[in-house]
Structure formats: structure tokens, C-alpha cells
Specification:
Layout lengths: L1 H23 L6 E2 H23 L5 H24 L4 E2 L7 H9 L2 H10 L7 H15 L6 H5 L13 H13 L4 H5 L2 H20 L2 H9 L5 H4 L11 H21 L4 H15 L3 H16 L4 H24 L13 H7 L3 H12 L2 H4 L2 H15 L1 H17 L1 H5 L5 H27 L13
Parallel strand pairs: 1-2
Helix pairs in contact: 1-2, 1-3, 1-8, 2-3, 2-8, 2-10, 4-11, 5-10, 6-8, 10-11, 10-13, 10-23, 11-23, 13-14, 13-15, 13-23, 14-15, 14-16, 15-16, 15-21, 18-23, 20-21, 20-23, 21-23
Length: 453
């Protein structure tokens, strides 16, 4: 019975997410099957978690569960309608030689590895105390978190104000299974990793055009210790890989729209930008970075279009803050208030922060040569594709620069705070870094079309 519940939970997420993805996609070209898989999962999880949060305001129990299930199936039906209207799905293999196709199959090895490791390790630390705890509490309360959960001062250490993307995706599994079964929840974690790999593969193939390059890029995760030995924190139920995946999808969507003229890339990037603040607090920094990239690609004169791009993400962030204020969420004391006075007083910490960050990024045992290779890859791209290299550099270094701000305002021991959190912050942009490496493998090609609409 548990297996059937897990299967139905997964299928409804895919159905709703695929319908939403195909509704956003335009007829400018086909969508890759792997791309559809990855986007369907991350957007479907966003859709089901948002529906549970909104419907849970007035509904509970079986009525809440049935209502959300019906809406997800309606989105699935919308996807079928879009396919009948002419949206095409392609494998991306085309006329590639057999060895390139087999290499793409080999690229599935990281997914199999992570899936195996997931069921060996237990959910722990943040995955247990921050994310799964919310799902468990909501399940026991009938499908939604009561206001008392957020205002309880004893829960401050467990971050009650963190968003509900992952907890309510886990809640959806619990509702289908009918129990708070952590083994059932662990079944969805490899799917998030598979979404990361398939979006990375698809982005490299679409932007680079070569199947072997996409396959090698997808395989590269096995050679970065933090992505392999630690399972990107996903084995313990963390959300940083999910944030990295959605950010990668947003960046690659903008690049596909601007460089390849794929009109569907723009609305997909807008949807990903809207999801970022719903996944984790740091999503606000990545949202700001994505808005900046949209402005750079558009040009500053088309500020109205950039504002429309930013609006859904801003609405998500503001709505969540209003919701937290309405339930009187217990405030955390880890950081000082963001004021000019506090920033000025913290400026002497800037030098040590940059030094400690440099040390963390250069640790071979965590990142191998990734953060040594990325600047070289960007320089290689800039040699022939200056604009593309500029946009990718902004996607990497703007959020990395903004990561300095929390450490400036931190009340914790500086080195301890950086040592215990920076790797996870860097993980959130690491998939874009791997994409840079993949594109740098490509040789010269014709200049890209101007794209966009």
C-alpha cells in the first residue's frame, strides 16, 4: 500500500508539473523530453506545495487532499491539450552517432548512485529538524500548519519562518501514503537529483548543440566530491540542491530565450524566479540575481519587461512575509537588523569573510578543481562569446557576492558560521558553474541569433 501511495503522489506531481510546463512553453520549437521531465518535477512540486498552503487556509483533511488532487489532474489535462495543439517533444538525439547516445545513457549513473545512497542514509539535521518536521506537523494537524506552530518561541532554532516548498511536497507524499513515513519521503529525493541532472543535460545540449558535451557535463557531478560523496546534502533531506536546480532552470531558460530564440524559455524562467523565494530564504538572493540577468539580456531601456519578469517572484516573497506576519512568527536572533549603521559597524569583518570564503572554495576535498576551472571556462567563453560569458559570470558571482551580506550581519562566530554554511550556499550556484564548464568544452561556432520577442 505504501508503494502505491508513493507512486500516486509522484505521478500527480509529474502530471500537474508537466501540464504547467507545457502551458508555459510556446510553439517556437520542441521541448526536450529530459527538459520536460526535470521542469515537470520541480514546477509540479512548487504547484502542489502552493496549492496545499493556499487551500489549507480554509480546508483540511480529506477535502483538502481531494481538492488539490483534482487541481493537479486538471493541470495534467491541460498538458494533454497543449500536446494536441502542437507542442512537440523531442529526445535531442537527432542524427547523433550511436556512441554519443550511449554516452548519454551512461550519464544516468549519478542518478542511480544517488538513488542507492539515499535509501542507505537517514534523513538528518536540517532535513529532519527543519523540513520534514514541518511536513509531519502539518500531516498530524490535518494538512496545514496551525498558526501556533509559527509563533511558538521554542521552535525558533528550527526556523519556522522557512518557506514550505519541500515540506509540503513531503506532506503530499504523507497524504497519499496515509502516514508520516520517512522512508516514503526519501523516495522523492532521488527524483529531485534526477531533475537536476536532466535540466543540466538539456541546458548544455540546447545551448551548446553537442550531445557528447551534454553527457560529459551531466557526468561531471561524480567528480566533484561535495556533489558525490555528500550527495549535495540531498541524502539528508536538505533543500539546497533543489534551489540550485530551479536557479539553473531559470538561468538556462533566459539563455535559451536570448541566444537561441526559444520563446518558451522566458515564461519558464519567470516561473522559476517565482519559485525561488518559496524554496528557501536564500532564494531571495538568487531571485535578485535572476532579475539582474533578465535586465542585462533585455537592455535597461526595456525596463517594463524586466519588471514583469520580476513581479511574480516579488509577489511570492511579499506574500510569504505577510503570511508570516499574520501568524506572528517567532523571530530569529542569528542576524542583526539590515541597517546602514550595522553594515558600517561590520565592515572590518569584510576582509576575514573574503579570506575564509576563498579558503572554503579552494578546498580540493570538497569541490575538487571546480572553482579553479570555472574562471578559466568563463575566460574561454569570453574569447568568442563575450555577452554569453558576461551573463554566466553574473549568474555565478552576483549571488556569491551577495552571500557576503549574511556573514556581515551574523551574530555567530564568523569562522564557524562560514565553515558550516558556505558550502551549501555555494552549492546553490554550482550547477550553473558546471554548465559553464560544459559550454567551454565546445569549440567555435557561428554567432547565435539575437533571440527573444
Amino acid at each position: 500500500m505504501r508503494t502505491l501511495g508513493i507512486l500516486l503522489a509522484v505521478l500527480t506531481i509529474f502530471a500537474g508539473g508537466a501540464g504547467l510546463t507545457l502551458a508555459l512553453w510556446r510553439r517556437s520549437g520542441p521541448i526536450l523530453a529530459a527538459e520536460l521531465f526535470g521542469l515537470a518535477w520541480v514546477l509540479g512540486a512548487g504547484l502542489v506545495s502552493a496549492l496545499l498552503a493556499l487551500a489549507g487556509i480554509g480546508l483540511s483533511g480529506g477535502v483538502l487532499f481531494a481538492s488539490v488532487a483534482v487541481v493537479m489532474l486538471c493541470f495534467g489535462a491541460l498538458g494533454v491539450k497543449r500536446l494536441r495543439e502542437g507542442v512537440r517533444i523531442e529526445t535531442g538525439f537527432g542524427n547523433a552517432p550511436p556512441w554519443e547516445k550511449w554516452l548519454s545513457v551512461v550519464a544516468l549513473i549519478p542518478i542511480v548512485y544517488i538513488a542507492t545512497m539515499t535509501f542507505r542514509d537517514a534523513i538528518a539535521w536540517d532535513g529532519l529538524l527543519i523540513w520534514e518536521a514541518k511536513a509531519r506537523h502539518a500531516f498530524l494537524a490535518g494538512g496545514s500548519l496551525p498558526a501556533a506552530y509559527f509563533s511558538d518561541a521554542t521552535r525558533v532554532r528550527f526556523h519556522p519562518g522557512y518557506p514550505l516548498y519541500l515540506p509540503f511536497t513531503e506532506l503530499w507524499v504523507y497524504l497519499w501514503v496515509g502516514d508520516c513515513d520517512q522512508t516514503a519521503v526519501k523516495a522523492i529525493l532521488p527524483i529531485f537529483y534526477a531533475a537536476a541532472i536532466t535540466i543540466l543535460w538539456s541546458a548544455t545540449l540546447r545551448l551548446g548543440g553537442r550531445l557528447w558535451m551534454a553527457a560529459l557535463t551531466a557526468l561531471s557531478a561524480l567528480f566533484v566530491p561535495y556533489m558525490a560523496a555528500h550527495g549535495l546534502g540531498l541524502l539528508q533531506g536538505y533543500s539546497d540542491l533543489i534551489l540550485a536546480t530551479v536557479y539553473l532552470a531559470g538561468v538556462s531558460g533566459l539563455l535559451a530565450w536570448r541566444l537561441k530564440g526559444v520563446a518558451g524559455g522566458w515564461p519558464v524562467a519567470v516561473a522559476c524566479a517565482a519559485l525561488l523565494p518559496w524554496i528557501k530564504q536564500e532564494g531571495l538572493l538568487l531571485l535578485a540575481s535572476l532579475i539582474l540577468q533578465a535586465a542585462l539580456m533585455h537592455g535597461w531601456r526595456r525596463w517594463k519587461r524586466t519588471l514583469l519578469f520580476a513581479l511574480p517572484g516579488i509577489v511570492t516573497a511579499v506574500a510569504w512575509r505577510i503570511a508570516l506576519h499574520s501568524v506572528h512568527v517567532a523571530e530569529e536572533t542569528t542576524f542583526q537588523a539590515l541597517t546602514l549603521e550595522n553594515l558600517h559597524a561590520s565592515l572590518p569583518r569584510l576582509g576575514p569573510i573574503l579570506l575564509f570564503m576563498g579558503i572554503q572554495l579552494s578546498r580540493i576535498e570538497s569541490w575538487s578543481l571546480l572553482w579553479f576551472a570555472v574562471p578559466v571556462a568563463l575566460l574561454s567563453l569570453a574569447w568568442q562569446r563575450r555577452r554569453e560569458a558576461l551573463w554566466l559570470a553574473a549568474a555565478l558571482f552576483v549571488p556569491l557576492g551577495m552571500d557576503v551580506l549574511p556573514y556581515l550581519l551574523s551574530r555567530l562566530d564568523l569562522y564557524f558560521h562560514i565553515a558550516t554554511s558556505l558550502d551549501r550556499l555555494v552549492l546553490q550556484i554550482s550547477l550553473v558553474g558546471v554548465l559553464c564548464l560544459g559550454l567551454a568544452l565546445e569549440g567555435s561556432r557561428k554567432p547565435p541569433p539575437s533571440g527573444g520577442d
